[in-house]
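Quick one:
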Amino acid sequence: MTLPFVHADWSAVVPVGIVAATALFILIADFFAGREGQRYVSIGIGLIGIAAAGYFAARQFGHNYDAFFGGFMVGGFATVFQEIILLAAAGSLILYATIGAPQRVAGMSAIMLWSACGAMLMAGAANLMMIFLGLELLSLGLYALCAAVDRKTARESALKYLILSSTATGFLIFGFALLFGATGSIRLADLVNPYLATSPYFWIGAGMFLIGIVFKLSLVPFHTWTPDVFEGAPLPVTAFMSVVTKAGTLAVFARFIYAALPPDTAEGLLLPVWIVAGISMIAGNVGMLAQENLKRLLGYSGVAQIGYILAALAGSTPLGLRYALYYLVAYAFMNLGAFAVAAAISGEDEEGAQIASYRGLARRRPWLAAAMTVFLLALAGLPPTAGFLGKILILSSSVASGYVWLGALLIIGTAISLYAYAKVIRVMYAHDAGEAHAVRPFVPLAWVSAAICGVFVIAMTFYPLTPSNVLPLVR
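Output:
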């Protein structure tokens, strides 16, 4: 008996397959690696596999194909999101060069890559089953990764994430059931039906689906878990979560609002999401003000940053999607760079997670202090960084779409955030060194990662790349 799939169907998931196989190779190679080389063998194999997956994903750009009978779409939209996910996976994997016991790095790297596979499936998902499969693969790996360190707060964060994330998944599944009841199909393409506008099953199902999406994006009022989980999880896992979960969920949300909503339903259905995004810009930035832990600060920052990205999507214009992707890429470099600096000054106890550890960093490690300053200025949206240009583009998009109030909230939120980011910069360049902090050994991978992120954060300002062939399809 032959399978009903052709070569093009299997080619569509080659990048995902490469990442999954790379995780297996890491575990096998760990058996033969010497005790001294365990850490770097795992990281090296992981980076090679990610590079190979990125190459094959890039080859799919512009070649739209409806694989597995409408279950998975390849093309410009899926490719861009998959590349962002692979970028974040590579940046997070590098952080294991300094964080984590060597004998555990292989297992954690493999789980991280399998989790990235889930996000990559979400990027191309074109039916409800594929969305759920990708989401669960992403989430199950993260539950394990959050607890993969001998620290009470890590186990607490994993349990908290498990319980709350499962609750959000429950909303998604029930929403899927109602959408299936309204259409009789799991394909997103079958939602594009004007008669669904009169179906209560569609409205309730879509509403529950969006509640689950809002939780996964860490938007108000479902955002309070984010700083707690970020603080407890290991530093590489926090870096991974901060970008990959947002990228995968944004891909699903964008495909839903751009390609799967019936005509004349978008404005009424999505208005609560835009309101929540606007509130998140303020709440996230206000939440940063009192933080003394860098991971918690960046957790609250992520709440605000995702609000900015959704402001670009308001109005569902093609230009808004391009600007949202530009800012998401910039945000990935900003966050990964900040976590790379934190890893470069950390030991096994992750001292870099505490803002107090940055006191006098400009004298101890001037280049690291300069890099962190660039990342914080970018997150604050100040020139000459990609964060500044990204916010200008988002502001223009939201105003052009008629959502002037979202643009106003973006400006207010940015103004509030300046104090929180400036607090860290002031500590790094403080004249009084205060308590002495040990200078950590030079960690080449962390330094190189920070340097690369810093270059891209500046370069993207002068060479903004917003690919045009990124509109999502469902058929």
